[in-house]
Amino acid sequence: MDVKIYDKLAKKYDLATKIVSFGIEELWRWMFKRELKKHIKNGVLIDVASATGEMARAMDFDKMYLIEPSSEMVKVIVEKFESLGYKKENFEVIFEEIPAIKLKKSKKEVIIIQDTAENVKLPEKADLITAFMALRNFDDLEKGIKNLDKYLKPGGYFGIVEMVKSESIIAKLILWYMDNVVPLIAGLLVGMKEEYKLLGKSITALKEEDILKCFKNYSIIKKKKLIFPIATMIITRKNERKNTECKD
Ligand SMILES: C[S@@+](CC[C@H](N)C(=O)[O-])C[C@H]1O[C@@H](n2cnc3c(N)ncnc32)[C@H](O)[C@@H]1O
Questions:
Q1: Residue 44 near ligand 1, beta carbon < 6 Å
Q2: Is 74 inside a domain boundary?
Q3: CATH number, domain with residue 224
């Protein structure tokens, strides 16, 4: 995915998302967080395709790695966590040759790495990976999930909320709304018509089977369509087996 579009959207992303989704995306996030917290309350979190860092802010774990390739989104994440009382440790902290921005608030740490799911390297394994509206942005779904899997502890959770292809009429109407109406609203309210047009074109909805086949070494804890059948929540738990691969 061309991250330049997200660079352009970064500063107005939170506001625009609330407006064009009529708050539904926030409801999905709330449902996702509520489900995840039933299984795991704290620990090390990796949030992938973090955009402005809303998922990490909601989860509020003691140690959080945010993986986001857009430099403008990274700036917004830093500002957001600073406004929550986090302080930048050093502008650039390099650990094991991984450039990152680290912020701290008493015992809590947020580490932002400007990279993609496919290429990121991390210094430790996590208890939970969150991918909220993230997977469809990966350039290579299998490579991204395989790479992230390396950084999840056995027994760790991988939680996903994603828009998936659906044959239902409501889903088709929502896709039509996103392609045709969202750019108009985004144009009127936040001056971002062209960016949202491009975004609509550049995003391909995934098939649920294509996601699930990458989680053969995981147990599916929960799989649920969220209100409006276009989004699915999948909570998985990594088995003791070693690496994952996408298998039919
Ligand atoms: C729809 S937003 C994600 C929303 C976000 N997870 C949230 O909780 O609000 C998609 C994000 O994916 C990022 N992205 C694009 N390509 C990526 C890749 N290959 N790996 C990880 N993130 C990517 C974009 O820069 C963008 O910020």
A1: no
A2: no
A3: 3.40.50.150
Residue 86 lies in a domain: no
- Phi and psi at 216, nearest 5°, equal -65, -30
Look up the domain containing 56 and give its range: 3-63+127-238
Q: Quick: pLDDT tens for 43-101.
A: 999 999 999 999 999 999 999 999 999 999 999 999 999 999 999 986 566 666 777 99
Per the structure, the count of domains in the chain is 1
Question: What is the per-residue pLDDT for 27?
Answer: 94
Compute, in angstroms, the gap from residue 110 CA to the centroid of ligand 1.
Answer: 17
- Give domain status of residue 161, yes or no: yes
CA distances 202 to 136, 137, 155, 205, Å, are 10, 9, 35, 10
Q: How far is the CA of 1 from the centre of ligand 1 (A)?
A: 9
Percent above pLDDT 70 for the chain: 92
Both structure tokens of 9: 């959207």
- Measured at the alpha carbon of residue 231, what is the angle toward residues 244 and 164, in degrees to the nearest 5? 60
Q: Is ligand 1 within 6 A of the CB of residue 49?
A: yes
Q: Is the CB of 20 under 6 A from ligand 1?
A: no
Residue matched to tokens 């609203």: 185
The CA 245 to ligand 1 mean position distance, Å, reads: 22
Residue nearest atom 19 of ligand 1, based on CA coordinates: 138
Amino acid 80: pLDDT: 98
- 3-state DSSP assignment of residue 54: helix
pLDDT confidence bin for 182, thresholds 50/70/90: confident
| 102 within some domain | no
Does the beta carbon of 14 lie inside 6 Å of ligand 1? Answer: no
CA of 37 to the centre of ligand 1 (A): 22
Query: For residue 174, what pLDDT band results from cuts at 50, 70 and 90?
Result: confident
